[in-house]
Design goal:
binds magnesium ion, Jelly Rolls, mainly beta, 16 strands, 249 residues
Length: 249
């Protein structure tokens, strides 16, 4: 039992806030149980409040562009079945923390954009490139972890083909006031523990050989989409935590 009151009620108010500095009445942060880190040998444990999008067992949370998701599930991972199309989550997300793990085919085939190509599309619109860029030159803004067609990753932190790699992504959805863009989407991308983008503004939905803008969308939430680019890329341990503001339960 606390013998002293927690916090203070005689301190200055924080700017634009109903709370004082060290306010004893300010809501307590929600308590969650953190997970464990992933490594190439095995996936980690998600935090207790994560929405599990894929735990290695089935694709029940996913659908294809025209019906069922038809990718293969085996041995705790899913694998692209070429020409069955992209798959996307049934649930939609805006601001979020996303974790997923992927592996390019161990048997190297093709080069440049034709080697282990897939993609993680935030809100189904903004592609963070998945590609086997281990000893595989391609155009910079199509490298593993690129905001495709816009920004190369700050570094190439790829593991060897066949090895499991982790993406940890922090995403802020764009804000609109009616038709007017108030703020663009922002993304922070960490590959294998290394920062590739740090709160980078996204120019608009990503595309191939084209410029885009927010004129094409007013969406503020969307599905997580994974790309069928014809290569046998695998994914495992996919979870997301929608992010709310401070003091929100
Ligand atoms: Mg791709």
């Amino acid at each position: 039992m606390a013998t002293q009151p927690i916090g203070y009620d005689d301190t200055p108010f924080l700017p634009d806030s109903q709370w004082r500095v060290h306010d004893g009445k300010r809501p307590q942060p929600r308590i969650i149980t953190p997970g464990t880190a992933s490594c190439p040998e095995q996936p980690g444990q998600p935090p207790s409040d994560a929405i599990i999008l894929f735990d290695g067992s089935d694709l029940s949370g996913w659908k294809g562009s025209n019906g069922e998701a038809q990718w293969k599930v085996e041995n705790g991972y899913m694998e692209v079945v070429p020409r069955t199309g992209n798959i996307e989550t049934k649930q939609h997300f805006g601001d979020c923390q996303l974790h997923l793990e992927w592996a390019a085919p161990a048997v190297v085939k093709g080069d440049s954009q034709g080697r282990g190509n897939s993609g993680v599309f935030l809100m189904g619109l903004y592609e963070i490139q998945v590609l086997d860029c281990y000893d595989n030159p391609t155009y910079a803004d199509g490298t593993t972890g690129a905001i495709y067609g816009q920004y190369p990753p700050l570094v190439n932190a790829c593991r060897k083909p066949g090895e499991w790699q982790t993406y940890d992504i922090l995403f802020t959805a764009p804000r609109f006031d009616g038709d007017r863009l108030v703020s663009p989407a922002y993304v922070t991308v960490i590959l294998n523990g290394v920062v590739l983008h740090h709160h980078q503004a996204i120019m608009g939905p990503t595309g191939h050989r084209t410029l885009t803008s927010y004129d094409e969308t007013r969406a503020t939430t969307g599905p997580l989409m994974l790309q069928d680019h014809g290569d046998l890329v695998r994914f495992r341990n996919i979870w997301v935590r929608p992010l709310k503001g401070y003091d929100e339960a």
